[in-house]
Each structure stands twice: as structure tokens, then as C-alpha cells.
């Protein structure tokens, strides 16, 4: 095998591959990336057995072939090389079984040990039918508004992913860790038929979001306990999480009696300052009264912090205790300058909306006041 390609072109794809397999053992074939050069293109593949990745880039193929090499070392080598064309060679009379990497016009020579490609697991990165088109920008927003709320409690594995379902004329994406919930909806894309709800690992969703340009469409398909994505030169697949996702509708308030409207940036900065005095519980208090919210931390050996923010509010004085991160996280992804907090009682759910209202909202369960 022998081919030539621009450094930046191959480095980007190898970095994606390494991101997928970074958690695998260094001794495993799964720590290798597969490289297949033929017909003027290089196929790059990687997998951790749950998420699989394939991409194709144009190269100059002198001799077709296929091999696998340790991805982390390949990435490090590529990063260290100067810009320009790089020549790769495998299995020639002069190189033996080493995978040789040498930049053109530079006296630099790296030789990586390789493992035959027949030891690499077979990947199903795409299927022949069943895809529907979805705007890349809209998909990225759906992931942004939900993925951060996924539970990291491995004993409740069915909450370790983002739930996707169809409901009448809506496609709904929702995530929860049992103390907070984030939901966003989108009109049903053309060509999508109703399906049973599925739980998608956040790893593949965040990968697709990061790789998408935000322009044009991506293709999605759900089949055989897997989800498939195809866009630009990328093919990505992932196994779905099996299990019964909680009935999230039970925690969505039907009505809430009171609402507070305030500037997102002002509120967010105040939260961060008060949080400097918060200890392990992460508990902060919102003292809501006419015209203002006072944000305060608990009294402790470290001290206490208080800051008041002007708001629009009419209702009874109310104190709500919350995990401050459950406010900071949604504020980070809401894309309007103004937000509103909706509530009824201190011990019942608080809902965070954008102003004006959009297709998403975030629900936070209060903590005990004492």
C-alpha cells in the first residue's frame, strides 16, 4: 500500500477516530485505526464496538492496500510533521511490515508497527435504506439543548442516553437524570415514519454535532437496535441503549402559577459569583420578591455570598433551594437574552424558558430548604 495526502486532510479524520477509541486498551486492536487506500480515496475507520466511524478522503494512490495502525501514535506523528504532502507506505520490499510515514521534501521517517486488517472488527457504519433528511443546524440545537442533562449514574443505564421519539406531528428529544429534565421538539421531517422511542448514547450525538457544519442536511436512520448518520464524507453508527426510559411526561407541570422574567447574562454572572461560596451540596437559594431575586449561598465555615438581580415579578415572596449547576447548564445553552422562571411552590418543579418561547425548556426539581 502506498498513497500521498495533505497532512491537514488526514489529521482531522485521525483525530476523530482517536476521540472514538481513546478509552480502549493500548493492547487492543480497537486502539487501531483502519486505513484502506484504493480508487483515489482513503477510507478511515474506527470503532469502540458501540460507536463506529467511517470517512473517505481523496488521496493519490500509488499502490492500493489496507492495514491498521495504533491511532494515538499516528495522531501524534501527524501533529508533529510540517504542513504539506505526506507519503504513507506499507508492506513494500524496503519497509517490511512497518507502516512508513514520511513528509515530502523533508528528511523525516517514522515507522509504525501495523496489525493486519483482517483482525479489525467488521463495522456496519451505514445501511442501504430507511434514511430521512434532517437539517444539520436543527439537529445540533436539539443535542445542545438536551445532552448535558443525561444521567451519569451507571446503575440507571436507561437514563444514560438521550430519548428520541415521535409524538403526533413532533419529533421529541429529551434527557433527564432524575433531578432535572431538558426537552426540545421539532416538526416531523418529511419521510420519517413513527417509531418506538429509542435511547441514544450522548457520545455519538455529541460527535455528530461537532462534525456537522450546520449547513445542509444530514441523513438519519434507526434500525436493528442501531442509529445511523450520514453527512458529507462521514458515516457514523451507534448501538442504542436498551431499557425503558422513564415516563418523563409525569414531571412536566400542567400549569405553573407564577413567573419571573430576567436578563440571562446578568442572572448567569450572579450565579457564578455566588457559587464561589457554595460547598459540596451545590445548594443555592433564590429569594424571589417583587422586583428582585436575591441569590445566596448557605451559611458555612467558608462564609456566605448574596447578590440581588432586578426582575419582573408579581406574586408572593418565595424561597426556592436549587443545585446551582442545574441553572448554570441550561443558561449556557439558551440562545436568547431574556429568560423566564416558572414555578408554583418552593417544593415543586421550576421550569426555565427562553423569552420569546422557543421549542425547548428545562425543568429543575428543587432541593430541601434546610
TrEMBL record:
Ranges where the DNA polymerase III beta sliding clamp C-terminal domain occurs: 249-367
Single Gene Ontology BP annotation: DNA strand elongation involved in DNA replication
Xref: Pfam families: DNA_pol3_beta, DNA_pol3_beta_2, DNA_pol3_beta_3
UniProt entry keywords in alphabetical sequence: Cytoplasm, DNA replication, DNA-binding, DNA-directed DNA polymerase, Nucleotidyltransferase, Transferase
SUPFAM superfamilies listed in its UniProt record: DNA clamp
Listed GO CC annotations: cytoplasm; DNA polymerase III complex
Example GO molecular function: 3'-5' exonuclease activity
InterPro entries, sorted: DNA_clamp_sf, DNA_polIII_beta, DNA_polIII_beta_C, DNA_polIII_beta_cen, DNA_polIII_beta_N
DNA polymerase III beta sliding clamp central domain sequence ranges: 135-247
Main localization (coarse): cytoplasm
Sequence ranges assigned to domain DNA polymerase III beta sliding clamp N-terminal in this UniProt record: 1-123
Subcellular location: Cytoplasm
Record NCBIfam families: dnan
Function recorded in the entry: Confers DNA tethering and processivity to DNA polymerases and other proteins. Acts as a clamp, forming a ring around DNA (a reaction catalyzed by the clamp-loading complex) which diffuses in an ATP-independent manner freely and bidirectionally along dsDNA. Initially characterized for its ability to contact the catalytic subunit of DNA polymerase III (Pol III), a complex, multichain enzyme responsible for most of the replicative synthesis in bacteria; Pol III exhibits 3'-5' exonuclease proofreading activity.
The family this protein is said to belong to: Belongs to the beta sliding clamp family.
Subunit-level organization: Forms a ring-shaped head-to-tail homodimer around DNA.
Protein name: Beta sliding clamp
Amino acid at each position: 500500500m502506498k498513497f500521498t495526502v495533505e497532512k491537514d486532510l488526514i489529521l482531522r479524520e485521525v483525530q476523530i477516530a482517536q476521540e472514538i477509541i481513546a478509552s480502549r486498551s493500548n493492547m487492543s486492536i480497537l486502539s487501531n485505526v483502519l486505513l484502506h487506500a484504493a480508487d483515489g480515496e482513503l477510507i478511515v475507520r474506527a470503532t469502540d464496538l458501540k460507536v463506529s466511524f467511517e470517512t473517505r478522503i481523496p488521496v493519490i494512490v500509488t499502490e492500493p492496500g489496507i492495514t491498521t495502525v495504533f491511532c494515538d501514535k499516528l495522531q501524534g506523528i501527524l501533529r508533529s510533521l510540517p504542513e504539506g504532502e505526506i507519503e504513507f507506505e506499507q508492506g513494500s520490499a524496503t519497509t517490511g511490515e512497518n507502516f512508513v510515514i514520511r513528509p515530502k521534501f523533508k528528511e523525516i521517517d517514522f515507522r509504525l508497527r501495523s496489525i493486519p486488517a483482517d483482525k479489525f472488527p467488521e463495522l456496519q457504519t451505514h445501511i442501504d435504506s430507511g434514511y430521512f433528511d434532517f437539517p444539520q443546524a436543527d439537529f445540533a440545537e436539539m443535542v445542545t439543548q438536551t445532552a448535558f442533562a443525561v444521567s451519569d449514574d451507571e446503575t440507571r443505564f436507561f437514563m444514560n442516553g438521550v430519548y428520541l421519539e415521535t409524538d403526533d406531528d413532533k419529533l421529541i428529544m429529551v434527557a433527564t437524570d432524575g433531578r432535572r429534565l431538558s426537552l426540545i421538539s421539532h416538526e416531523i421531517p418529511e419521510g420519517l415514519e413513527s417509531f418506538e422511542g429509542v435511547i441514544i448514547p450522548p457520545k455519538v450525538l455529541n460527535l455528530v454535532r461537532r462534525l456537522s457544519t450546520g449547513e445542509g442536511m444530514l441523513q438519519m436512520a434507526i434500525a436493528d437496535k442501531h442509529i445511523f448518520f450520514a453527512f458529507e464524507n462521514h458515516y457514523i453508527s451507534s448501538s442504542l441503549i436498551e431499557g425503558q426510559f422513564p415516563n418523563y411526561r409525569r414531571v412536566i407541570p400542567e400549569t405553573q402559577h407564577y413567573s419571573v422574567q430576567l436578563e440571562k447574562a446578568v442572572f448567569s454572572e450572579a450565579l457564578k459569583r455566588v457559587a464561589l461560596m457554595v460547598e459540596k451540596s451545590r445548594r443555592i437559594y433564590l429569594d424571589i420578591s417583587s422586583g428582585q431575586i436575591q441569590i445566596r449561598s448557605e451559611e458555612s465555615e467558608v462564609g456566605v455570598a448574596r447578590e440581588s438581580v432586578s426582575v419582573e415579578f408579581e406574586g408572593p415572596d418565595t424561597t426556592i433551594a436549587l443545585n446551582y449547576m442545574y441553572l448554570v447548564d441550561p443558561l449556557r445553552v439558551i440562545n436568547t437574552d431574556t429568560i423566564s422562571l416558572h414555578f408554583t411552590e418552593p417544593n415543586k418543579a421550576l421550569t426555565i424558558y427562553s423569552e420569546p418561547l422557543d421549542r425547548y425548556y428545562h425543568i429543575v426539581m428543587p432541593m430541601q430548604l434546610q
